[in-house]
Design goal:
about 350 residues; alpha/beta; Rossmann fold; Glutathione S-transferase Yfyf (Class Pi), Chain A, domain 2; six-stranded antiparallel β-sheet; six-stranded mixed β-sheet; about 40% helix; about 25% strand; globular
């Protein structure tokens, strides 16, 4: 899986850009706020259908312009791809795959698989469970469209159940009418929970390998899937979750939302038998987050037979020389995009960025 070229028009601080990439390592260097991360963002958008930042689509359009455009060309094992994104401040975005418009983001996800890492990804380890659920969901969805569908379905069912709990002032009425949402919720939750558990079991050996490599064998990592449904993942999952929903109905009614379900899932992460989130150092948390991302490379390859695109945004400023060298050696099997303030003596195709332009490349 390789990205061959990228064309931008009025995207972020780029008025116009056309660039061809190396199949191996591509390095974007330059001072801060020149547009290095914006290039990664445009590529990521073509893979996932949204930015890795929590912003509105219209904010991606160059200041003072009404429309923006991304054109990305890529090669997979058996076919070529062209992804086009048309952004507008007055209309909904349009995404085309090989010149054919798509109706849902689910049609785009999985066409080009990607793994993104930046220093901000520390939140994956030390912040709320939302970040760890997002990590699981983005990864699994890229190779399992059914999972993406079930996730979207679950969120709609949950929203309807919560609306009933929040807007009704009659508990008996809620008890009489909520069963339709409960049945749908437990059926969909079961499918999501089993996929997440399988994912954690799949990436565990790869994470362990990456953590051992990056730490020089000093740290042992352990991952556990923590299901928020309050029941065991066995053949009686749906039956037991349904019973628990009914048991909690008065509590849910009082609070106005559903207190159990896969929307409360988490990943427990331990390093040398100590919980990393609360007790790990920042250096350990950073290495763990990076190990999880590197594990994604191997697990996606295991599922698809192709390595995903890897993006490392300002990661090398956070690593010492030894870990920089270890990281580069670890990722030499995949096409990689790196941003940094200088080339860090990285071997690859180097692009120097200034004010939304490539001023030099070699």
């Amino acid at each position: 899986m390789k990205i061959s070229s990228l064309t931008l028009t009025n995207f972020r601080n780029y008025e116009s850009l056309k660039v061809d990439f190396s199949d191996k390592i591509n390095v974007f260097i330059g001072k801060n706020a020149q547009g290095k991360t914006n290039l990664l963002e445009s590529i990521f958008y073509c893979c996932i259908g949204k930015s890795f930042k929590s912003i509105k689509d219209k904010d991606l359009i160059r200041f003072g312009c009404e429309e923006g455009y991304i054109n990305l060309k890529a090669e997979r094992k058996y076919r070529e791809l062209k992804i086009e994104v048309k952004l507008s401040k007055s209309h909904k975005k349009t995404i085309l795959i090989n010149s054919l418009p798509i109706r849902r983001i689910g049609e785009l996800i999985g066409e080009i698989n990607v793994v993104f890492f930046s220093p901000n990804e520390l939140k994956l380890v030390r912040e709320s469970p939302d970040e760890r659920r997002k990590f699981m969901d983005i990864d699994i969805s890229q190779t399992n469209k059914r999972y993406f569908y079930n996730l979207s379905r679950y969120e709609k069912i949950l929203a309807n159940r919560n609306k009933l709990l929040k807007t009704s002032d009659n508990l008996e009425y809620v008890k009489e009418t909520i069963d339709i949402w409960d049945r749908a919720l437990v059926q969909t939750a079961q499918k999501i929970a089993f996929e997440r558990k399988k994912f954690i079991e799949e990436i565990m050996p790869y994470t362990e390998k990456a953590q051992t490599y990056l730490s020089g064998g000093k740290e042992k990592i352990e991952l556990n899937y923590a299901c928020g449904c309050g029941v065991k993942l066995d053949e009686k999952f749906e039956e037991n979750m349904d019973k628990l929903l009914k048991k909690n109905i008065e509590k849910d009614f009082k609070l106005g939302y559903t207190t159990i379900g896969v929307h409360r899932d988490d990943i427990d992460i331990f390093l040398n038998d100590v919980e990393v989130k609360n007790f790990g150092s920042q250096g350990q948390q950073r290495t763990v987050a990076l190990s999880l991302k590197l594990a994604e490379l191997e697990s996606m390859f295991n599922r698809t037979g192709e390595y995903p695109i890897l993006m490392l945004d300002d990661v090398f400023s956070e690593l010492d020389a030894e870990r920089q060298a270890r990281l580069l050696k670890f990722v030499d099997r995949t096409q990689t995009f790196i941003t940094c303030t200088d080339d860090k003596k990285i071997t690859g195709k180097v692009f120097e960025i200034a004010s939304g332009k490539i001023i030099k490349q070699n």
